[in-house]
UniProtKB/TrEMBL annotation:
Belongs to the ABC transporter superfamily. It holds the Pfam family ABC_tran. Gene3D superfamilies: P-loop containing nucleotide triphosphate hydrolases. This is ABC transporter. PANTHER family: ALIPHATIC SULFONATES IMPORT ATP-BINDING PROTEIN SSUB, TAURINE IMPORT ATP-BINDING PROTEIN-RELATED. Coiled coil: none annotated. Keywords: ATP-binding, Nucleotide-binding, Transport. PROSITE patterns: ABC_TRANSPORTER_1, ABC_TRANSPORTER_2. GO terms for molecular function: ATP binding; ATP hydrolysis activity. The lineage of its organism: Bacteria, Pseudomonadati, Pseudomonadota, Alphaproteobacteria, Hyphomicrobiales.
Length: 266
């Protein structure tokens, strides 16, 4: 059985949730379906406003779905679980805390801020190339470095599932490419299962085992594209026929380009 199953998930934001008497209900998700295995990295790709963040928040147990089922590791998700990690577009670090103490914040909340936690935080920060910045404050770091800290903070408690919502969307192109490689390396080291929301077709193909493409709101899964590019991946893969073909399939599903006459070939 799959580690994660998203079945017929529908979410309607009612007028009361919209805090307005006059507003029409908003159908954010309509019958979203897909599965994923433990250790997989799944990219969720779709037009702006199609409900990707809403789906992540439902998977996280932060909001209730209107109908359908979300099972993670054999449990139906109805409330927030402690064993998830989150990375958002903004790193949201605490400015008064050092890099190390920002990473350890999760462990403080979980009351597990012991030597083991500190050693792991130090190892993670080393893995992302920040071993020289343990005592630095967030304002002394670049945007990419801050996002590396946020990644370590999300992984410090060895979460069952890592949820990433456009984590590299605010970074410049070069830093973004570096972060894609870093994510692949971290994921290999930690074995984390990841749901990764992005607007970038190229990024989705590069980092994932499968791209789930959503239609316009109300979102349904338009198609699932298995990515069988080899590991370890490197930037040269972006210029291979297999990569271009996957990008083309995703672009077709998004309606960016018409379907190729053969139905799939790049
Ligand atoms: N708390 C909320 N209350 C009411 N409506 C909401 C709420 N959260 C999201 N929505 C609506 O649900 C729809 C989907 O929003 P969502 O943020 O999930 O889309 P998205 O695909 O993540 O967008 P983007 O890619 O631009 O970040 C939007 O129309 C949004 O206005």
């Amino acid at each position: 059985m799959a580690f994660g199953t998203i079945r017929n998930v529908r979410k309607v934001f009612s007028a009361s949730e919209l805090n307005s008497r006059s507003a029409e209900p908003v159908v954010a998700l309509d019958d979203a379906n897909f599965d994923f295995d433990e250790g997989q990295l799944i990219a969720l790709l779709g037009p702006s406003g199609c409900g990707k963040t809403t789906l992540l928040r439902i998977v996280a147990g932060l909001i209730q779905k209107t109908s359908g089922s979300v099972m993670i590791g054999g449990r139906e998700i109805t409330e927030p679980l402690g064993d998830y990690g989150f990375v958002f577009q903004s790193p949201s670090l605490m400015p008064w805390r050092s890099v190390l103490d920002n990473v350890l914040f999760t462990m403080e909340v979980l009351k597990r801020n012991d030597k083991v936690a500190r050693d792991r935080a130090t190892q993670l920060l080393e893995l992302v190339g920040l071993s020289g910045f343990l005592g630095a404050r967030p304002h002394q770091l670049s945007g990419g470095m801050q996002q590396r800290v946020a990644l370590c903070r999300a992984l410090i408690h060895q979460p069952k599932l890592l949820l990433m919502d456009e984590p590299f969307g605010a970074l410049d192109e070069l830093t973004r490419l570096e972060m894609n490689d870093l994510l692949l390396r971290i994921r290999k080291e930690t074995g984390a299962t990841v749901l990764f929301v992005t607007h970038s077709i190229s990024e989705a193909v590069y980092v994932s085992d499968k791209v789930v493409v959503f239609s316009r709101r109300p979102a349904r899964v338009a198609t699932e594209i298995p990515i069988s590019l080899p590991y370890p991946r490197n930037q040269q893969l972006r210029f291979t026929p297999a990569f271009t073909k996957a990008e083309r399939l995703a672009s077709e599903a998004l309606g960016v380009v018409p379907p190729a006459e053969t139905g799939s070939a790049a």
